[in-house]
Amino acid sequence: MLVGEDRTVGGAFGSIYGGSVLGYYSPGADRIVLVSDSETPTVDRATLAHELMHALQDQRLSLLGGAANPDERMAETGVVEGDASYVEAQYEERCEAEWDCIDRPSAGGGASIADENLGLYLTVYAPYSEGPTLVHRTRQRGGWAAVDDLYTRPPESSEQLIHPEDYPQDRPASVVVPDRSTAEYDRASATRLGEATLFAMLWQQRAIDRGTLGENPGAYSAYNYSHPATAGWAGDKLVPYFDADSDDPSMDGYVLKTRWESQRDARQFARAYRGMLTESLNATAEGEGVYRVEDGSFEDAFRVTRDGKTVRIVNAPTVDALDEVRRGD
Question: Is residue 28 classed exposed, middle or buried when 0-12, 13-18 and 19+ CB atoms within 10 A define those classes?
């Protein structure tokens, strides 16, 4: 529900990264690369401080890596980028109060991000926004030594970035999706989306109040990714299914099973998801828990069911195909 069938995921990400990267540290080349159209680029002191911190991480700590799914990778990135962004912020505070620092270049207009990519941008930016708060709280609790420990025991989910008080005790629940598809569909490898991506999905489709994004962010954070519709996340599993007889991606489907901390949390997410279908995407009800989006880039059929703390979403190209992707519920 972030990238429609009228474009590719790679193209959507390219639109985001293409105009927003100012510089980066390359571990393999052991150098900082500046991205600029000018033959004589001027580096912003904050960008340089950020990238120098990445070089220090690479030399003394770890840039992490090896996460099993996008949600865990986002959490690990939150440590690396959160630490660098936090140090950048500390540096700027001292430049403004104590140090005589080089002037910052005048800010340009910057690249704009199309509205259709804003939700996807939020998934990319979550580690940069929420990571600094985790690092700040960790430093308050145990000093820089405790921050260094984050590299050996990083958070396991974006939930622990959004709610740093849940780190490290509240680990993501194990969610299992048994295969109940017919021969018409082939099952692919499962993955985990996480709280930040589910929040971005609802935010993008205006299923929640977009204004809450800027309200009461954590210390050193730009945004607030916590919302009642997703704050009770405990775990999830996304399983793609591919049409066995077609290479057309519009014929594919998936099962998304989510686990929540309480039945109330599950009801809030299910209510927001159904609202997204009916109000944002103009879906029509085709039976109990079954909806059909008749046109647009998300044209598909959906079955949304809740059982206690579990909410299950089945997606297929048609209402009849829902039982082919997953029989019985």
Answer: exposed
Give the per-residue pLDDT at 19. 62
Backbone angles phi, psi at 253, to 5 degrees: -150, -175
64/83 Cα distance (integer angstroms): 13
310 is written with which tokens?
A: 């579990």
How does pLDDT run across 46-70, given as a tens digit for each residue? 989 999 999 999 999 888 888 999 9
Element (H, E) at 272: helix 263-275
Return the SS3 of 297: coil
H or E stretch covering 118: helix 118-149
Give Cβ neighbours of residue 309 (< 8 Å, ≥ 6 apart). 234, 259, 260, 261, 262, 263, 265, 266
pLDDT of residue 6: 87
Domain ranges within the chain, ordered by starting residue: 9-166, 185-325
Asked if residue 91 lies in contact with residue 72, where contact means CB atoms within 8 angstroms, the answer is no
pLDDT, mean of residues 258-283: 98
Contact predicate 129/221, CB 8 Å: yes
